[in-house]
Request: fold
Amino acid sequence: MPAPSQGVDLIERRIPKSGEAIPAVGLGTWQVFDVAGNTAELAQARETLRVFAERGGRVVDSSPMYGSSEAVTGQLAAELGLKGKLFLATKVWTSGRQAGIQQMEDSMRKLGVERLDLMQVHNLVDAATHLATLAEWKAAGRFRYLGITHYNAGGHDDLERIIARQDIDVVQVNYSIAEPEAARRLLRAAAERRTAVIVNRPFAEGAMFRRVKGQALPEWAAELGCASWAQYFLKWILAEPAVTCVIPGTRNPSHVADNLGAATGPLPDEAMRRKMSAYYTSL
Ligand SMILES: NC(=O)c1ccc[n+]([C@@H]2O[C@H](COP(=O)([O-])OP(=O)(O)OC[C@H]3O[C@@H](n4cnc5c(N)ncnc54)[C@H](OP(=O)(O)O)[C@@H]3O)[C@@H](O)[C@H]2O)c1
Reply:
């Protein structure tokens, strides 16, 4: 069983441009919170969000691309008395200024917020248009932070170009033992530009669990306090100092507790990270 993280302070990281500290493990909602209309799955999502918040989790990431997940997040946050306690992030994912404005208004209504913590341009869709609107809305106080996202290495150069030229608070990108390409340049560029990094796809959308299925953790993983493969994968990510927060997706309450457990105890040094990568790759 994964080590419980209840009652234990989570590792926090600061958003470089503000100095605000946030817990280093958050929650992704792609697919897993797209459950409006399914009573059993909605109950799982509610319990997952409850356990997440009870154990100190705050950052929740959504998108209008994720079906009902924004509305479900807003509904459950209200039901659980979490309004104002979470750090809510969503995205704009459409083309054209007016369509973007409409979509962002809808998202904030669904999430039940007047002021959103973080609005991101999803997969850089019509990024120049939306970044202009995002800057206006941030200046007007409707968002606290603005950002850009992508989900594969093919988007990293564009992310890097944008953070080099514009004032971007957060870059959200894929990064994991299985998909380590962001370490080539993008993470360093983000650190230099004081841009926070949110890591998506930390388990390569679950593929990493399929690879280690039936395999025990190596004995030396205990030195890091890893009680599960999820913690092994997440601690590897969190050991990179440019990373501000990692957002594994789940609708399973014990998985969310397991994931938060990665934000406790020691993190690997560089030598250990290399050993962890080599071991995973050998399986
Ligand atoms: N372009 C973008 O902006 C973009 C792209 C991709 C993702 N994202 C964001 O990043 C989040 C994370 O990425 P992702 O959801 O694609 O993939 P992921 O987090 O790498 O993997 C999710 C999968 O891992 C499983 N899982 C989670 N915790 C586990 C645990 N402790 N033990 C065993 N299995 C576990 C989940 O299944 P269970 O439900 O069974 O736990 C799910 O199948 C998304 O939800 C989304 O918010 C953004």
